[in-house]
């Protein structure tokens, strides 16, 4: 019996970068070059490499990920034991989350990258790629959905966040921590998140852009009327603390919420948005009464992506609210 098959999709980033004449590294290596640079992979899996995109991770869009999700499902349906996606780390928490929502298969989907590019001592790209492939062929990772593997840690896409600009241990998962790790080349999975969340898109899903608005001290909300005028279909507000905004902007938010889904998230990055603790004007209770929809434990970036996909799927306000309301129930 041969080695398990794994599809590796390269989308650029530090793991596939080379120095461009002293001007800094650029994502230029192909998927085939990535795999050939790590000879140990040949003893773990039968890899087919695909150069899906060659771009900095900030250039990727939701449309790219919809296309990638379909490619991944096709490879899995064709017999691949799992899939690995390599990309720049700037948007890994978002890419992995979208793939987790769209890929509806039991086989592992693993997203990885590198914090130290190939021109630096201790470049971590090869080790991360090898670890990701080990996880992709592991029975332990089946049914986990999409995970992020770097620094020998396994993180669930729904929890993972990039927390440091340059530290190789940048990826953290609140509040659960990694769901597993790699020890002596063996993936260990010790935590399995409850529930599964999938979004099914129609074949010709239309772009439904969603704005992300971060509330700061002294913000008067003068930019909020631009949201509708610029053609956005939804809005996620990253509010202060448990879900609070200055009172001067509540009427504008209420008006927007009568025209489009307006989501209430917390800018803190941890915990859940409150629902009924505070009652002052601009509090979470006040805003929810005015029509805003809480995002539960999802931060603004992930709430924006979930809302974008739900709108593309044709979901209305009630379905959107129910999805966020039951997020922790699966």
TrEMBL record:
A Gene Ontology annotation in the biological process aspect, one of them, is: asparagine metabolic process
The protein's matches in Pfam families, at most eight in alphabetical order, are given as: Asparaginase (PF00710), Asparaginase_C (PF17763)
Q: What SMART domains does this protein map onto?
A: Asparaginase
Q: Which residues bind substrate?
A: 57, 89-90
What is annotated as the active site? 14
Instruction: State the InterPro entries in the record.
Output: AsnASE_II, Asp/glu_Ase-like_sf, Asparaginase/glutaminase-like, Asparaginase_C, L-asparaginase_C, L-asparaginase_N, L-asparaginase_N_sf
Out of the domains of life, which is the source? Bacteria
PROSITE patterns linked: ASN_GLN_ASE_3
Q: What is this protein's name?
A: Asparaginase
Question: Which SUPFAM superfamilies would you find in this protein's record?
Answer: Glutaminase/Asparaginase
* Span of domain Asparaginase/glutaminase C-terminal: 210-324
Its family remark reads: Belongs to the asparaginase 1 family.
Single GO MF descriptor: asparaginase activity
Keyword terms: Hydrolase
Q: Where is the L-asparaginase N-terminal domain?
A: 5-185
């Amino acid at each position: 019996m041969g080695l398990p098959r794994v599809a590796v999709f390269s989308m650029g980033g530090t793991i596939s970068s080379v120095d461009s004449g002293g001007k800094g590294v650029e994502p230029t290596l192909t998927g085939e070059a990535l795999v050939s640079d790590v000879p140990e992979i040949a003893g773990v899996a039968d890899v087919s490499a695909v150069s899906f995109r060659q771009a900095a991770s900030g250039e990727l869009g939701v449309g790219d990920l919809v296309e990638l999700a379909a490619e991944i499902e096709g490879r899995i349906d064709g017999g691949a034991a799992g899939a690995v996606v390599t990309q720049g780390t700037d948007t890994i928490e978002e890419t992995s989350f979208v793939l987790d929502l769209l890929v509806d298969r039991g086989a592992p989907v693993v997203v990885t990258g590198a914090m130290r590019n190939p021109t630096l001592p201790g470049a971590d790209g090869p080790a991360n790629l090898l670890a990701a492939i080990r996880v992709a062929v592991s029975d332990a990772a089946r049914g986990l959905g999409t995970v992020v593997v770097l620094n020998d840690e396994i993180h669930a896409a729904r929890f993972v966040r990039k927390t440091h600009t340059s530290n190789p241990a940048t990826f953290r998962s609140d509040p659960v921590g990694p769901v597993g790790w790699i020890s002596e080349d063996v993936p260990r999975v010790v935590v399995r998140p409850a529930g599964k969340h999938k979004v099914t898109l129609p074949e010709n899903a239309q772009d439904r852009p969603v704005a992300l608005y971060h509330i700061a001290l002294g913000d008067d909300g003068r930019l909020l009327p631009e949201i509708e005028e610029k053609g956005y279909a939804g809005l996620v507000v990253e509010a202060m603390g448990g879900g609070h905004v200055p009172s001067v902007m509540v009427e504008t938010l209420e008006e927007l919420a009568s025209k489009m889904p307006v989501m209430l998230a917390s800018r803190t990055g941890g915990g859940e948005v409150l629902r009924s603790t505070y009652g002052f004007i601009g509090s979470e209770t006040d805003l929810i009464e005015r029509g805003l929809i809480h995002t539960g434990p999802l931060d603004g970036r992930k709430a924006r992506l979930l809302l974008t996909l739900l709108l593309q799927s044709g979901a209305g306000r009630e379905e959107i609210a129910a999805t966020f309301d039951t997020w922790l129930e699966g």
